[in-house]
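Posting for a labmate who doesn't have an account.
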Amino acid sequence: MLLPRRFQLIGWIMFFPLAILLVLNGFYDYEIDWLTWDNFRSGDIFNTSNENFTNEISIVGTFLSLFFIAFSKEKQEDEYIQKLRLDSLLIAFYVYGLLTVLGTLVFYSVGYLEFMGFNMFSIQLVFILRFRWVMYRQQNTLSLI
């Protein structure tokens, strides 16, 4: 039930610009002007006259790019690769749980909300880092034989 291999390349191409945009928007309040929508009326449910969607696009785009990277097929997909995926996913959930507990104890108010916003990427990031690291080590071990 994995995505086709080409999604991995699409994910890597999307990840870097969207992650940079996410950091710029989150820490420096950078907004792309043409993503501003000022068609809201005062009587609408949104109760705003001006909304910029830079934050939403950077969050959703970064999440999707990490999803594409993490859950697309490898060149050689076999039972051993599936086991590595499962082990990496388990470790990613452990790290996510630990980060969530520590963040709950350390951060308060708006800082906690910001922490949880960035923490939602930790499962995918830890999974990708661990899975790629194990695949790299496995490839090096096979090349030494």
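Reply:
Got it, the structure tokens are right above this. The chain has five helices and two strands.
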